Amino acid sequence: MYPDLQGKTVVITGAGTGLGQAMALRFGQEKANVVINYFKEEENPDDTIKEIERSGGKAIKIQGDVSKEEDIKQMIQKAVSEFGSLDIMVNNAGIENEVPSDELTLEDWNRVISTNLTGMFLGCREAIDYMLDHGIKGSVINMSSVHQQIPWPHFVHYAASKGGAKLLTETLALEYAPKGIRVNAIGPGAIDTPINAEKFADEKLKEGVVELIPMGYIGKPEEVAACAVWLSSSEASYVTGLTLYVDGGMTKYPGFQAGKG
């Protein structure tokens, strides 16, 4: 637990399900004020809000599309109007779809880039602007992926968005370090979330993924959430510009495990 997070206000995009929901619940356990952004009506986070409140935190929800500038602005405004400040911004919203690169439409390319990278930029910009105006030495966390490092055929738009997320994070970290604003990224590997449910329901496909993980198991959303609260806390006060891989070793060339190669 991180006592300094109690009463801090965090905005988490794409928090209706999956990693975003897990982070919202964990920040609630830290007794933070959580603003839950969600996109689809079926992701309505009312149950998540109740769980956060049972944990001693506070939470509100706001529906919105992170690729739209006005929606991001409204998230920040709602956080401030409800809780009086913004201390932590988690740009988590992201989408993907599989398609051979030679068949990828411009529409699909733009859809993924707009959500994953443009939405991340807008969240960073609006949060940092607020923190600068109010003298807040805050924390920004961008949800990247192991695929900012590992190429991923049939997902070129997703991989490109995460490669962009890496240098977006590092550039902003360098730019705003003198102001005490920390900007970091988390790079999850294979995590048991709804976006991966269909793949992991197929035991053969799941076994193929596990073979790529030196630790030998699919990660849990709670393991990613634990890293998010640490990066937001004073325990990580000297950490900026980092991508923290939460991947069971997936980025460490598993084919060479046990002396192979």
TrEMBL record:
Pfam families: adh_short_C2. PROSITE patterns: ADH_SHORT (PS00061). InterPro entries: NAD(P)-bd_dom_sf (IPR036291), Sc_DH/Rdtase_CS (IPR020904), SDR_fam (IPR002347). Keywords: Oxidoreductase. Its EC number is 1.1.1.47. It is an enzyme of class 1 (oxidoreductase). The keyword Oxidoreductase applies. Gene3D superfamilies: NAD(P)-binding Rossmann-like Domain. One of its GO terms (molecular function) is glucose 1-dehydrogenase (NAD+) activity. It catalyses: D-glucose + NAD(+) = D-glucono-1,5-lactone + NADH + H(+); D-glucose + NADP(+) = D-glucono-1,5-lactone + NADPH + H(+). NCBIfam families: PRK07231.1, PRK08936.1. Belongs to the short-chain dehydrogenases/reductases (SDR) family. Homotetramer. This is glucose 1-dehydrogenase [NAD(P)(+)]. It comes from Bacillus gobiensis.
